[in-house]
Amino acid sequence: MFSKLALKNVTRSVRDYSVYFLTLMFGVCIFYVFNSLDSQWVMESLRGSSGTNDTTRQALDMILTLIDIFSVFVSVILAFLILYANNFMVKRRKKELGTYLLLGLSQGRVAALLFAETALIGLISLGVGLVLGIFLSQFLSVFTAGFFQIIITEFHFVFSWKALGKTLLYFSLIFLVVMVFTALTVSRQKLIDLLQAERRSERLKARGLGMSVALFLLSLVLLAVAYAMLLIRGMLRVDALFYLMLALGSLGTLLFFRGLSGFLLQVLQSNKTLYYRGLNMFTLRQFAARVGSNYLSMTVICLMLLLAIGITACSVGLNNTLDSITGVQAPYDFYLAATALDPETGEETAVDVPAALKEAGFDPEVELEQSAQVALWQGVVTWVAGDQEEVVVFLLPLSGYNGMRSLSGREPIALAGDRCTWVIGEENDVADRLAQDGQVFRVNGHDLAVDGTAVSHEALSLGYDPTPRSYLIVPDAVLEGAAEEGALNMNIDYFCGNYRADAPKEETEERFQSVLSDFERIAFRAEAGGGGWIRCQTRLEVYLETMGTKMMVLFLGIYLGIVFLLCSAAVLALQQLSQAADNVPRYRILSRLGVEEKMMHRSVDIQVLLAFLLPLALALVHSVVGMTAANQVIAQVGRLDAAASSAVTGVFLVIFYGAYFLATCAGSRRLARGR
Questions:
Q1: How far is it, in rounded angstroms, from Cα 94 to Cα 88?
Q2: Residues 492-502: pLDDT tens digits?
Q3: CB neighbours (10 Å) of residue 492?
């Protein structure tokens, strides 16, 4: 009989608190999916692949380590969420529990009943959540493979015993804590309090208009100070003022909701037409009462939404930023530069890179679709302006620059014999002056005027150098004999190329890497005791190094972002459902007074909408300021893709937050109808 009663109660609770059960199941699902990452075949393949460098392997190991650490944090968050939800469920069932005591059950037996119900709820959530997690982890494997551009020849089913064990352990501990707290809560309740729980309505704590306005204005001042500190100081200076900024922002958020609860109602009451229209008086008083009594939880929800939006947006935006950085740093498939040293004189001599590669077994004419030799010059040129100032610059011949443009899929540029142009990598006042149309530079005895129409503002990567530089582009004839004059010298000669598109680039890359040792022997004439230095890097190497960081940022960001978003939406939904249940007697009275069901539904929807929008609106304001500060940091290496990050974050909000809103509206309507 005891077991049947527990099963019946759970079945009924699933119907009344479906949001709670969905949250638990989704929490288990997400926990399993991300903790199964280390067991995915694609991760094992990447760590064991000969083409994966040590940096990428270290990044992959770091991802798995951080997933373990973050999972502890996530489990603590979910534990608080489940405790919070259970308190609402116990509060909702106080009269029922009091009836059990009145019928002769001891408090111990009632506590044992709740203990059994919680255990059954946990088993259902774990079972369904694990099934969903195992299913979704297969998609994560495919996503990871596509992330690293690994071709999937056959499907690999992923099942992680380690993730299963961790999920069972963590959630068993969570539910054990929940059961103990629930039992303690019931054992401390008095019978009279349980039986009269439904009669105790939530009273609006009246506050004077002056006090409410003062609190609201104080909150705006505190938030403005916190925003200014963040934007001026930045996000990277973690000191006493940083923690003061967080404290001011949190206190400002708290006072915002506390002041608004009385301030908003007073203002709305002054507008008689609006206040007394339809059920607005009932709706607004109920909402104001909820904000007044739940301002602390609204503050927590707002801050969790801020974390969810900020973490998700930054991870997605930084992910796209890393993509763009990779494209800038590696615009072609490889570069190779070498200089030989004479064993007797130590003099540097140029190496014919294409010929040495061909002799080593990698024929550029066969293996490459496009190639270019780019000579980088450095030296002093005269800026013919005022006092004829001398400046040290990097120079590129026009043919080499156009060769690089061709490799990256861009059209060549044309220059007259007496013209030059600039590639501006780092924006500043000096660079802007140098690149003005008509400025004249004397290069190797030639006076060249800047062609302003051809000036390019781009990050030109020579040798995959991430440092932004500016280059002066001059006609090839200008540099003839420049080395003999002494003012200019050829810094290095790069050979760049793109692999053939009709052959697998991974195979071409492997052939290229395999001949480098023979290339070095041939280029340096090692048999004769010669030496030298070599510079070489491929786009695939740069890509793999970047992908480790990219994957870590994206996976951890989405993991935490989803968890915070789920917690925020679930707490809001549970609050609204519980309060809708408390309002059932009031809706019953409205029905007896002749209020149409449609009007009651509209009142319910407005209350839920305001409850969901209020913390979200302030969280969005917080996140805009936070993203601005984050962009200042990211701008040092790239630029945050605001459009992509906003779009992805918006999709998550619509899917998860919107789904909880609709589910809450449906549940609250059903409760208002007395079903």
A1: 10
A2: 888 999 999 88
A3: 17
| CA torsion angle 466 471 473 477 (round to 10) | -100
Q: Which amino acid is at 230?
A: L
pLDDT digits (tens, 9 = 90+) for 236-294: 677 788 888 888 988 988 888 888 876 666 666 777 777 777 777 787 777 777 777 77
- Radius of gyration of the chain, Cα coordinates, nearest whole angstrom: 34
In this structure, what DSSP letter does residue 370 have? E
Rounded to whole angstroms, how far apart are CA atoms 585 and 198? 9
Whether the predicted pLDDT of 359 surpasses 80: yes
**Phi and psi at residue 450, in whole multiples of 5°?**
-70, 130
Three-state DSSP state, 150: coil
Cβ proximity of 618 and 302 under 8 Å: yes
Angle between helices 295-329 and 642-652 (to 10 degrees): 140
And the tokens for 304?
Answer: 């969790």
Distance CA 613, CA 600 (A): 20
Contact 163, 28 (CB under 8 A): no
Q: What is the 3 state secondary structure string of 394-413?
A: EEEEHHHHHHHHHHCCCCCC
Residue 673 dihedral angles phi and psi, to the nearest 5°: -80, -5
d(CA 370, CA 354): 12
Q: Cα–Cα distance between 150 and 145 in angstroms, integer? A: 5
614: three-class secondary structure by DSSP: helix
CA 407 to chain centre: 32
DSSP calls for 537-581 = EEHHHHHHHHHHHHHHHHHHHHHHHHHHHHHHHHHHHHHHHHHHH
C-alpha–C-alpha distance, residues 238 and 91, integer Å: 42
Pairing of strands 446-450, 440-443: antiparallel
Average pLDDT for the chain: 78
Neighbours of 243 (CB within 10 A): 10
**Cβ neighbours of residue 175 under 8 Å, at least 6 residues apart?**
82, 118, 119, 121, 122
H-type helices in 148-208, by residue range? 161-187, 191-195
Would you call 465 helix, strand, or coil by DSSP? coil
Is the C-alpha dihedral spanning 16, 19, 22, 23 positive or negative?
negative
> Element (H or E) spanning 71, and its range?
helix 54-92
Dihedral sign of CA atoms 543, 546, 549, 551 in order: negative
Q: Which two tokens stand for residue 617?
A: 């609106």
Q: How many CA atoms lie within 13 A of 201 on its CB side?
A: 10
User: How far apart are the C-alpha atoms of 396 and 472, rounded to whole Å?
Assistant: 6
The model's pLDDT over 476-494, given as tens digits with 9 standing for 90+, comes to 999 988 877 677 888 788 8
C-alpha to C-alpha distance for 49 and 334, rounded to whole angstroms: 20
Structure tokens at 593: 């007074």
Share of the chain above pLDDT 70, in %: 75
Identify the CA nearest to 650 among candidates 620, 613, 615, 612: 620
pLDDT at residue 314, as a whole number = 77
417 close to 447: Cβ distance less than 8 angstroms:
no
